[in-house]
Design a protein that fits this description.
mainly beta; 5 strands; 3-stranded antiparallel sheet
Length: 62
């Protein structure tokens, strides 16, 4: 059975867990789109999304 990929409602980090490992927030199965941040210090997208760590992030989480 494939694992369900979820996104954190607080920081939008993508995970398979029920609780976000980055911020401890609740996760949701209802999310859309994602972006992969490789270098958050130079990324304009990371700045606009207020992301301060590299990783996979959902664009929209409900």
């Amino acid at each position: 059975m494939p694992k369900i990929i979820k996104a954190c409602k607080n920081c939008s980090s993508i995970t398979e867990d029920d609780v976000c490992a980055r911020c401890g927030g609740k996760t949701s199965k209802d999310w859309q789109g994602y972006v992969i941040i490789i270098d958050h210090t130079k990324s304009e997208i990371a700045k606009k999304m207020e992301i301060n760590a590299n990783g996979r992030y959902a664009l929209k989480v409900r």
